[in-house]
Write a structure and sequence with these properties.
Number of helices: 22
CATH topology: Amino acid/polyamine transporter I
Radius of gyration: 23 Å
Helix content: 55-70%
Distance between the termini: 44 Å
Structural class: mainly alpha
Strand content: under 5%
CATH architecture: Up-down Bundle
CATH superfamily: Amino acid/polyamine transporter I
Shape: globular
Number of strands: 0
Length: 563
């Protein structure tokens, strides 16, 4: 088991040969491909991960990991359970929570651009056992998501009669081969594919919002003016408090993947600009696309529509987006179903990135088989990629009967059901603990090149909201409905199994290491290893940027924050 040194080095060198030439801190300019690398504290291997992701890739990776079937299909069952008002309110609340989480992550990512992102922050600022548990929980989540998304993408094709006649195993094989091909091209290939797929989703959502406005105003031939009719009848809220909590849970899951920019922190060429900017853009874009699109869905689709109860998983024919577009044209509905299929594949693509990065980081800390630490000369954690693709073979369970397939994936996904809450909450808590360690060791806040906009207060609020999400999930897991009917043991564990799994990982690592401390003392935290060396340059750049802020620059800064 590796551990942080008691006296961390005062200077961290990501590449000794490069430092010998530069004779000063880390160069913020992008390096050539030959010297391109992703670095991490304590790594000294011959091959390193390539720093080939640009700012646009980082932004679209987060958007691509977040916008998927959870929005396009899962929102249908959420609309039926809670009504249009609950749908919009819950997504706004989770959007605010993600703003606070991403601000905390941006502060840590600028200062410590280490491979593994928030997993490493948990190790250093909270507790190594908690870092082990959350790191493996996160890796397991994305390992499981890949076969599920491959199956879901294949089943979405059943929307068309011609594709329905083809065995689902054929489509699974095609998608798995395509995903494997993307992995061959390394991180740059992944980034380009994700950029294109995410761009398609963004354009499609903008098109849907415009269409829904026209439909709501009675601009579609043969359709009357709708306005806010469905907010009065059947009503803005459905299912009472239980219905609201049900939407709360769905909204939280639909935002999963937003934190992926944290895994790319080590690849940022200009951290002070690219990471905070990506954080702001990701939040605002997702908030706009989620909240506005769901507001329009709630205006044009009645929450008591029978087909919404079947809107889950790969049942794209019951998607409220597809149903709304089908009012005007089946061609539009068919086109949007293609977008949903690509969105699901985008999530599968993101899962490969998240799993390989996290697993490689775990191995570098001695918390996973050393085999997974290996990186080939092309910058690929090749054995991590192989493991991820082998898990993809589980998608062929999709050839089983519908009952068997659902049962299999329900239990598989139960292992990762709460991971988002634990991940986001841990990011906020790691930020709080980092600030405590920074202060305890005599450092000034002025030494931090980028500070979270809402400070530790924002992180406390973010942590509290994550706890509320966990309580809402527990409530909907214990009760089967709003009438007070107790859920079955099977139903409870399919919703809450990830919690005992995390506890087993946490306690298991403590027993293995015989480390019974709850937290790393603030005065003993390693706040030096992996820190960017050119802090003076970053602070000077921050002062320069702040000096340009004023009333005259406000409109352009707003545009840049959104686009």
């Amino acid at each position: 088991m590796s551990s942080y040194p008691q006296e961390p080095p005062a200077v961290y060198s990501p590449n000794a040969a490069y430092d010998a030439e530069k004779l000063h801190g880390y160069d913020e300019k992008p390096l050539s491909h030959g010297n391109s690398q992703e670095f991490d504290a304590g790594e000294g291997q011959a091959n390193v991960l390539h720093r080939d992701l640009k700012g646009r890739h980082m932004q679209m990776i987060a958007i691509g990991g977040a916008i998927g079937a959870g929005l396009f299909v899962g929102s249908g069952s959420a609309l039926a359970a809670g009504g249009p008002a609950s749908l919009v309110l819950c997504f706004i609340i989770i959007g605010v929570m993600l703003l606070l989480v991403m601000q905390a992550l941006a502060e840590l990512g600028v200062l410590y651009p280490v491979n593994g992102g928030f997993f490493k922050y948990n190790l250093r600022f909270i507790n190594r056992s908690w870092g082990f548990a959350t790191g493996w929980d996160y890796a397991i989540q994305w390992l499981i998501i890949l076969p599920f998304e491959l199956t879901a993408a294949s089943l979405t094709l059943a929307y068309w009669q011609g594709a329905r006649d083809v065995n689902v195993g054929v489509w699974i094989a095609v998608f798995l081969v395509a995903l494997s091909a993307v992995q061959i091209f390394g991180v740059r290939g992944f980034g380009e594919v994700e950029f294109i797929l995410s761009l398609i989703k963004v354009v499609a959502l903008l098109g849907f919002i415009i269409y829904a406005i026209v439909l709501d105003c009675g601009g579609v031939a043969g359709q009357p003016y709708i306005g806010a009719r469905y907010w009065y009848s059947p009503g803005a809220f459905q299912g009472g408090f239980y219905g609201f909590c049900s939407v709360f849970v769905t909204a939280s899951f639909a935002f999963g993947g937003t934190e992926l920019t944290g895994l790319a922190a080590a690849e940022a060429a200009n951290p002070l600009r690219s990471i905070p900017q990506a954080t702001k853009q990701v939040f605002w874009r997702i908030t706009i696309f989620y909240v506005v699109s769901l507001l329009m869905v709630g205006l044009v689709v009645p929450s008591d529509a029978d087909y919404l109860l079947k809107a889950s998983g790969s049942a794209t024919q019951y998607s409220p987006f597809v149903a709304a577009l089908g009012i005007a044209s089946q061609g539009l509905a068919s086109t949007f179903n293609v977008v949903i299929c690509l969105s699901v594949l985008s999530v599968a693509n993101s899962s490969a990135y998240a799993t390989t990065r996290t697993l490689q980081a775990l191995a570098s800390e001695g918390m996973a088989p050393r085999l997974f630490e290996y990186i080939d000369k092309h910058g690929r954690p090749i054995y991590c990629v192989i493991l991820q693709l082998l898990f993809g073979l589980l998608a062929f369970v999709g050839e089983a009967s519908t009952t068997t397939r659902k049962e299999f994936f329900n239990w598989l996904l139960a292992l990762s059901g709460l991971v988002n809450f634990f991940t986001w909450g841990s990011i906020c808590f790691a930020h709080i603990r980092f600030r405590a360690g920074w202060k305890a060791q005599g450092r000034s806040l002025d030494d931090i090149p980028y500070k979270a906009a809402f400070g530790t207060i924002g992180s406390w609020i973010g942590l509290l909201l994550n706890m509320v999400c966990l309580m809402a999930t527990f409530y909907t897991s214990v009760w089967a409905d709003g009438a007070g009917t107790l859920n079955t043991a099977k139903g409870f564990f399919q919703s809450y199994l990830a919690a005992p799994l995390l506890l087993v990982l946490y306690v298991g690592w403590k027993i293995y290491t015989r480390d019974w401390t709850l937290f790393i003392k603030a005065s003993e935290m390693d706040i030096t290893s992996g820190m960017r060396e050119n802090l003076d340059e970053l602070r000077a750049l921050r002062v320069e940027v702040d000096s340009k802020k004023g009333i005259k620059s406000w409109p352009m800064r707003m545009v840049r924050a959104l686009i």
